[in-house]
Amino acid sequence: MPPFERDPEPLTSHRTTARSILLVLLGLAAGVGSQSLHAQTYGGSDGLGAKSATTTSAPATSAPSTTNSTPRPKPKTVPIGNRLIFPVVGPVQYTDDFGAPRPGGVRHEGNDIMAAKKSLAVAVENGTVKFGHNSAHAGCYLYLYGKSGAYYLYIHLNNDVTMANDNRGKCGPGMSYVKGLKNGQKVKAGEPIGYVGDSGDANGIHAHLHFEVHPHGGGAVDPYPYLNRALRLLFALRRGATFTLKLNGSVAGLTDGGSLKELVSTVLTFPTGYKTTGVKRTIQLWLPDDATVQRKANGVVRTVTNPAAALKKKAPVQIATASAAATLQAQIGAADALVANRVLVLPKS
């Protein structure tokens, strides 16, 4: 029987251990980060064993001018190699629980990645998705058959219509899988494929992704070392789709090459309206000479004449990026892969 036709029954009783509950209490439930889902319209990295918002209106952006006196630095490429893309976007917690005992004498065949409900699950490498049927144990799940020959299981995907545990959703696109995704569809590394949930025997306990790795199409191996080496995404979108970002955070510094570093706390992606909070990551954006830099004081926004003086370290800022086509390097947040179009310096709280 082809592996994508089997019900992943080794998860026979996936009830949470005390350690998992503690992770939730100390991390996600305590406000490590949250993600909100609005309307989505979503439609490589070779993997294991490779032989080969506060608002939903988009910020006003435009392509940077080509007449800047300061030339744009060449974006620094983050090497992918045989590393995977991390399967969940946003704040997560996970431990090496592969092989942990489960009732019935079975062993845990993956790692549980704790995340906020409806966090985006993404393709870890280029491949083909296969939908699984609804299972009492696995709930809503899918397979990703990677270009490398490995396959991956994404288990306990979302089945809730609301953010409460209503169990009113079906295992299908727009609920457990991203809207527009088709069974058998080819996807690229970093593209959204599903939403983290608590379906199956994880029902009502906490949202998480049970993630399995099967190199060369064989048995499950411990995902932990692969997750530790995986590249984290700043945002997720269908490759080549036009996007803008609104990045809330604080100034981390300016470079001699004309770039701005920001410690990002929140990412709002347009046109999807998908918001990720609790990011806590420093990225470097190119700041063109014709980018608009403004300051808000006493409720009034004014353009500044000396951006360097306004962009002091730790100053709260909101950055809107220039409209661009999504690339994996931009999604990773590689240095200068994103262009700042408008920077608003906010009052310190």
Q: What is the radius of gyration?
A: 21 Å
Biggest sheet statistics? 9 strands, mixed
CATH architectural designation of the largest domain = Distorted Sandwich
Q: List unreliable stretches of 5+ residues.
A: 1-7, 9-56, 63-67
Query: Which CATH top level class of the largest domain fits?
Result: Mainly Beta
How many E strands? 20
Percentage of residues assigned to helices? under 10%
CATH topology of the largest domain, which one? Glucose Permease (Domain IIA)
Helix segment count? 4
Tally of structural domains = 2
For the structure shown, list the relevant keywords:
disordered N terminus; 4 helices; OB fold (Dihydrolipoamide Acetyltransferase, E2P); Glucose Permease (Domain IIA); 20 strands; 9-stranded mixed beta sheet; 2 domains; 349 residues; mainly beta
Please tell me about this protein's structure:
It is a single chain. The chain is mainly β. It contains 4 helices and 20 strands. It folds into 2 domains: 3-31 and 84-229, Glucose Permease (Domain IIA) (Distorted Sandwich), CATH 2.70.70; 242-345, OB fold (Dihydrolipoamide Acetyltransferase, E2P) (Beta Barrel), CATH 2.40.50. The strands form 4 sheets. Strands 1, 13, 14, 15, 16, 17, 18, 19 and 20 form a 9-stranded mixed sheet that branches. The radius of gyration is 21 Å and the shape is elongated.
Q: Summarize this, please?
A:
The chain has about 350 residues and is mainly β. The chain has helices at about 20-25, 225-230, 305-310, 330, and strands spanning about 35, 90-95, 100, 105, 110-115, 120, 125-130, 140-145, 150-155, 185, 190-195, 210-215, 240-255, 260-270, 275-285, 290-295, 300-305, 315-320, 325, 340-345. It folds into two domains: about 5-30 and about 85-230, Glucose Permease (Domain IIA), CATH 2.70.70.10; about 240-345, OB fold (Dihydrolipoamide Acetyltransferase, E2P) (Beta Barrel), CATH 2.40.50.
